[in-house]
Amino acid sequence: MTSSEKHGRGPRLVIGSNPERNRAHNRRVVLEVIRTHGHMGRTEIARRARITPQAVANIVDDLLSEGMLVQLGRLRSGRGQPPIQFAINPDGPLTGGVEIAADHIATTLLDLSGAVRAQAIAPLQSATPDQVPGRVSEEIDKLCAQIGASRDRLIGFGAVMPGPFEVEGMSSVGPATLPGWKGIDAKATLSRAIGQPVSIENDATAAAVGERLYGAGRQISNFCFLYFGVGLGLGVLKDGVPLRGAFGNAGEIGHVALVPRHGLPSYGPDGALERFASLYALREKLAASGRPNIDSGALEPLFTQNDPVLADWIKQAADYLAPTVAMIENIFDPETVVFGGNLPDVILDALIAALEPLPVSVSTRTGRAQPRVVRGQTGRFTAALGAAALALHDILSPQLSLEYSPAVAAARP
Length: 413
Description:
globular, WH-like_DNA-bd_sf, WH_DNA-bd_sf, 37% helix, five-stranded mixed sheet, 13 strands, alpha/beta, 18% strand, 413 residues, ROK family protein, ATPase_NBD
């Protein structure tokens, strides 16, 4: 037994030489270097990727023949023959992402540079497993038709669904989890319908990724994203990498019971945060006032009209969310906490304003570069963007570190 084994660390893993594995890794490195920097010549690619010029030349030729790269011409730089420039092909392969919620699906297509090529939100009458896969497939076909793309260009796909995943005896409030999916292999079911391997992600985690690449988190690598789906979730980005947890359930904050700033605490399921500070809770209040089935698009006019039920919910939600923000800060020490998801921007702004005064936490300090709480910038597409981006990084990136890139910034929706 080795010393490592004696101390519970396990035997040291030794990875042998595998030319095919190395080549696949090098392809991803080359694609990521080009994607991150926009365009460059073979010599510069080799220098940044730390791969031999001959290997880079072979990889670039392969990627050109596969339609992943395009040749832009020569860039004059000093003496001698100017280097030929290569860039990600905007008309090449695509990745897609879909958010499957209780009442809608949001779908996005990205090219390999991370640019948004098409996106749409469609109402969903039934979120059951016999209806959803076909609807997702239809939405993909519609988006492909918008940009004149063949379905064959799709090489990766991500889907986000409300959690928690694989947990017995625990469900979100109301319809925050999808009906009929218990015991269903969502990954296999969606993969068959789409004709591509599908990765399944927690909606709040995907939303944090979408905000990192396309929204308020573009210049922030450590932040928490409080996601207003139907329920309430938390996505965490640490050094640009999403915190998923062992089973994909990290950030199930909607099930936490907290003492509000004002009023009496509740305990157990009835005291769950989602019962008070979620879109579902707001819809319950509106239904009780004689207005059932209010969707997200109808909320902004209610706010403009100073609707008293909506105003009361904002006050109540803020009383629960202010200590929630302090708790998040004390646990994760983020640069900021981002509020976003399926609530209109004006309501998110009002909710953030109603948080003041926030309780003292490790984030209570002068000279902050960011406010303690900010509104997200990607709107209702944030989770679908994150799902498509995660599929893109699974294909391109040698490691999942969601770095800011000029190409993605220029493509912000």
